Amino acid sequence: MNVPRFILREWQLSDAASLVEHANNIHVWNNLRDAFPYPYTEEDGQQFITKAMNIPKPTTLMAIEVDGKSVGSISITLHTDIERITAELGYFIGENYWNRGIMSEAVKEMVSYAFLHFPELKKIYATPFGFNIASQRVLQKAGFECEGILKQTAIKNGKVIDEHYYSMLKSLWVSNVHHRFFRQEDYLLLESLLYEAIFQPDGAEPLPRAIIKKPEINSAIRDFGKKPDDFCLFAELNGKTVGGAWMRISDGESKSFGYIDSETPELVITVFKEYRNLGIGQGLMHHLIDSAKGYKQISLSVDKRNYAVEMYKKFGFKIERENEQDYAMVLKIKG
């Protein structure tokens, strides 16, 4: 299915007219709580946007933009006290944009945003009305699971109705990560990952991106895919690349500190900063080690200050040598 392009972004005062155009619709209102106004006036739109713009960062309320116009809204409501690890998802989109696949993709994107920006969250849920089959399908397509039916818990248009409780656990969201192999058109992506792999202490001035052109660094990706032993995996979550791991045997030129010999492939592994501490790097490492069974050992170099040193040790890497800044580590491959 070819889903129309959309973006999630913060609300702006200039969105008021478009918001009112798409929110002032009885068919939209029928699927929402009564707190959502109908008729939806210009004053309602301005109050809503002002409220959205005053939410502390990171925001919990975003506009859905299609073709340069705000056509809907999506939000999470953070709970407190003992339920502070849970948030409720809410959304609507203008009727002209129903049944086009936009909402399911927007839900996926909002879920990722929420779990990444609010690390304490363990669960996101939504409670569409029992008669709102379309909203239930939106959640199903976004990977939500129905935990049950809340019978006769609400009243809408004078009728007592059921609500269906759909949820996404953070553990399930992370499990949606899958791996794919390198394609030649991925070279620019590999450059981005190589830059991300360079250790930079928190608070330090970012290194210039041109640093990846230094011969001893660029040797990790130069003409990647043209050597028979080049091997690369990307980790993807909801269609977005979030990390990568690759290994290759050096030709002996521009040797990095992790170089051991002409038979030992050197590993580079990284996860984009916002996706760290989710187990994605460990999954990549397991897959890559399983793919290295034909070698006696693999190596890597790592800054001594990098917290990943401990992860490498847990996988069995041993320090082969060190200098003032880095370790060269080696993993013996079993079987």
Précis, in short:
With 335 residues, the protein is α+β, with helices and mostly antiparallel strands. It has 10 helices and 14 strands.
Structural write-up:
With 335 residues, the protein is of the alpha+beta class. It has two domains: 7-175, Aminopeptidase (3-Layer(aba) Sandwich), CATH 3.40.630.30; 178-332, Gcn5-related N-acetyltransferase (GNAT) (Aminopeptidase, 3-Layer(aba) Sandwich). The chain is 26% helix and 30% strand. It has helices spanning 16-23, 26-29, 42-53, 102-117, 133-141, 170-175, 187-197, 215-218, 280-290, 308-314, and strands at residues 7-9, 61-66, 69-78, 86-93, 123-126, 145-156, 159-169, 178-181, 231-237, 240-248, 266-271, 297-303, 318-322, 326-332. It has a seven-stranded mixed beta sheet, sandwiched between helices. It has a four-stranded antiparallel beta sheet with strand order 8-9-10-11, sandwiched between helices. Strand 9 (231-237) and strand 10 (240-248) form a beta hairpin. The longest helix has 16 residues, at 102-117. The protein is elongated, with a radius of gyration of 24 Å. The model has no long low-confidence stretch (mean pLDDT 94).
